[in-house]
Design brief:
About 25% of the residues lie in helices and about 10% in strands. It is an alpha+beta fold and about 475 residues long. It folds into two domains: about 260 residues, 3-Layer(aba) Sandwich (Alkaline Phosphatase, subunit A); about 140 residues, Arylsulfatase, C-terminal domain (2-Layer Sandwich), CATH 3.30.1120.10.
């Protein structure tokens, strides 16, 4: 998916792909593109679906976006290898982002698997992570997030089980898609000469789709299915997730289980919002089965790939200067050598802020009183401080005993925020929908501004995009 090229309310009436201010991946240096220009949406009838610079539509009821991404990616790799060309593929699945859309057979495979509930799932996953060495055994699991009932007190347990079963089915479908691309590499005997990196973009999502309120604006999602049925929006037992005419999410309870053992969720800068899996594979170069605990940032991926391939990062494109890489190569860590990031990592997202320097993490949750301006270094009241080496699950706030360290990190954050153009939250130019105009802690309702679905679809060039040839995802 590509959030900057279209779909939001700011689209001008004369919008066209790659017009100034609305770049597609093609306008940002990619040679080919298959995907959506919008954010999360229907997997059966995705909006703003693009094949290179052509907006296309779906006209078959057996289409699924995850499968189509996988097929286009495999076709692109096959084409590149037939031409013996080096290639870069960025395969950005939307799964398992809401809505919960998956094949019936995959859902049935997992139906009943989650009847033990979210509390038992959190505990079992935490124990498994410790057993695998992914987590240190000294890191205690965080308490169940407030507002979540104990599983034994939850109603409609069979429906709640299907929520998570559908989520698991989405992940299995994604996994098959990754396998399709890897099989293509193996068929060409190219696996050993290809660097593969797999990661997620954020922690589990607690956003709740409420069918009887304006959270989110239902008009964004109720346009009909390919065969003309209206879409039923909401997390309610009367709507079993999975089919094309539904639009639901896993909600906060299962998101808390997905993020075990960490606190909070997507949108936040606590570990539950930012800690994601990262797996790298490069036979003969990266030793298998190793676990590295040093923190890195997504911006480090570019620097690592440039380092690994011996490429030269360009300074100009199209006559314009290119900003230098902000990341640091973690190739030594991948190769089993000692490595640590030299520069701090800093974040801001929707008013949530954080700084990571070595084992120390300073973090602030939006709405934490008094929540001063993000660039105000004069108060520690809105911040928490953790030693992540000792307390990865952020349970023991050390700020009262580490005021000098916290103040130094706050000043560093203030300098970074000013240099990066961080704006106070909420951004005045982005009005919040009704009921979302007050910042509160743990407001997990998805924020959706008024939107329209973009200009009319111009050309439907494909009958079934799964058989569209070698138009790749992005390369």
């Amino acid at each position: 998916k590509w959030h900057v090229g279209g779909e939001q309310a700011t689209l001008p009436d004369d919008w066209y792909p790659d017009m100034p201010g609305y770049p597609t991946p093609r306008g940002r240096g990619f040679d080919r593109f298959y995907g959506i220009l919008s954010g999360g949406g229907s997997y059966y009838n995705p909006n703003m679906l693009m094949d290179d610079l052509t907006r296309i539509s779906v006209d078959t009821t057996d289409y699924h976006f995850t499968d189509s991404i996988s097929q286009h990616a495999a076709d692109f790799v096959d084409d590149a290898l037939h031409r013996d060309d080096p290639f870069f593929l960025y395969m950005a699945f939307t799964a398992p982002h809401w809505p919960l859309h998956a094949h019936p057979n995959d859902i049935e495979k997992y139906r009943g698997s989650y009847m033990g509930g979210w509390d038992a799932l959190r505990t079992s996953r935490h124990e498994q992570q410790k057993g695998l060495g992914v987590l240190d055994s000294k890191w205690a699991i965080s308490p169940r997030e407030r507002g979540i009932s104990a599983w034994e007190d939850a109603d409609n347990q069979e429906w709640r089980d299907v929520q998570m079963a559908t989520y698991a089915a989405q992940i299995e479908q994604l996994d098959r898609g990754v396998g399709k691309v890897l099989d293509t590499l193996k068929e060409h005997d190219a696996e050993d000469d290809t660097i593969i990196m797999f990661m997620s973009d954020n922690g589990g999502c607690a956003e709740f789709l409420q069918e009887d309120t304006n959270y989110p604006d239902p008009s964004r999602y109720i346009h009909p299915t390919v065969d003309g049925r209206m879409v039923r929006v909401g997390n309610t037992p009367s709507i079993e997730p999975g089919p094309a005419d539904t639009f639901a999410s896993i909600d906060i309870s299962w998101a808390n289980a997905s993020n075990a053992p960490f606190r909070l969720f997507k949108r936040y800068t606590h570990e539950g919002g930012i800690s994601t899996p990262f797996i790298a594979h490069w036979p003969g170069q990266i030793p298998g089965g190793e676990i590295v605990h040093e923190p890195a940032h997504v911006m480090d991926v570019m620097a690592t790939l440039v380092d690994a391939t011996g490429a030269k990062y360009p300074t100009k494109r199209g006559g314009h200067d290119i900003q230098p890489m902000a990341g640091e190569s973690f190739l030594p860590a991948l190769k089993g050598r000692k490595w640590h990031r030299e520069q701090p990592i800093m974040w801001e997202h929707e008013g949530n802020r954080a700084v990571r320097i070595g084992p120390w993490k300073l973090v602030s949750e939006v709405g934490a009183p008094p929540n001063p301006d993000p660039r105000d270094p004069g108060s520690t009241d809105a911040w928490e401080l953790y030693n992540i080496d000792d307390d990865r699950t952020e349970l023991t706030d050390l700020i009262s005993g580490e005021r000098d360290r916290a103040s130094t990190m706050m000043r560093q954050y203030a300098e970074w925020a000013y240099a990066s153009g961080v704006q106070p939250w909420p951004i005045p130019s982005s009005p919040r929908p009704m009921g979302m105009d007050t910042i509160t802690r743990h407001n997990h309702t998805v924020q959706v501004p008024s939107v329209r679905l973009g200009p009319p679809k111009r050309v439907a060039t494909l009958n079934d995009t799964r058989n569209a040839g070698h138009d790749g995802t992005m390369n």
